[in-house]
Amino acid sequence: MNILLIGDIVGHPGRTITARTATRWKAEHRADLVIANAENSAAGRGLTAPLADELFSGGCDLLTMGDHVWDQKEAPALLDRDPRIVRALNLPPGCPGRGATVLETPDGPLALVQLLGRTFMAMNSDCPFRAIDDWLKRNASRFKTIIVDFHAEATSEKVAMRHHLDGRVTCLFGTHTHIQTADESVTAKGTAYITDLGMTGPCDSVIGRTTDIILRRFTTGMPGKFEIATNDVRLHGALLTLDPTTGRARKIKRVEELA
Ligand SMILES: [Fe+2]
Ligand SMILES: [Fe+2]
């Protein structure tokens, strides 16, 4: 089974290249499933119902969120009703939506879980290590294939999670930094890993936003309304190949597609 994993989709440019790539890769049998991070789909801030529809009809099967999950007013209701959208598992109890979901595939059920990091992250969350331990204790026996999105800033926290989950999940991929890392690998115990998938959106930017406004913020400290950039649109992610009968990853390879 081949799964295309897509890094943080930013705005209209990111959605357009996502739909084009996901549709084409599925038609060409390069990808059986597509899992994408959609926390920046709505002009950088969260996800709306029409934009979720756009991504699903454009070939995405499951979407993960992140620290921008509640940016849109309609997000709580959207996440409550659509089981294809996952927010972090370790958000405090009582939050809307779900931290894990199950997709029935021709090769058996696949579980997708999202975790949120706590190092250099402003969002309030519980310990991601304990949260995934607890989830695995209750659910691991039901699934061969378990995919985890670790939405986190610090590479150290992500690499630590890699060791924590080695041999316990099929794939652990990182999102949130918008910068793709060159460290994809499969461990001896069959867990695929990459620290960050990167960003799907305008790369002539500061992680998706227009450069001049961000530079002004850094150099003067003055606030300004962020805008989504438009140039040099790329899709960043990874292609995961796994054996659904064992739940072990076989391969993971970085992906970059140009618009
Ligand atoms: Fe994020
Ligand atoms: Fe993001």
Please name the fourth-level CATH homologous superfamily. Metallo-dependent phosphatases
The Rg value, from CA coordinates, equals 17 Å
Distinct small-molecule ligands in the complex: fe (ii) ion
CATH architecture heading: 4-Layer Sandwich
User: Any idea of the CATH class?
Assistant: Alpha Beta
Question: What count of helical segments does DSSP give?
Answer: 6
- Number of DSSP-assigned strands: 14
How would you state the average pLDDT, rounded?
A: 97
Shape field: globular
Please outline the helices and strands.
Elements: E1 2-6, E2 8-9, H1 11-27, E3 33-37, H2 49-57, E4 62-64, H3 75-81, E5 85-86, E6 100-105, E7 108-116, H4 128-139, E8 145-151, H5 155-165, E9 171-175, E10 185-186, E11 192-194, E12 199-202, H6 211-220, E13 233-243, E14 248-258
Parallel strand pairs: 1-3, 2-12, 3-4, 4-5, 7-8, 8-9, 9-11
Antiparallel strand pairs: 1-13, 6-7, 10-11, 12-13, 13-14
Features:
single chain, 259 residues, alpha/beta, Purple Acid Phosphatase, chain A, domain 2, eight-stranded mixed beta sheet, six-stranded mixed beta sheet, 6 helices, 29% strand, binds fe (ii) ion
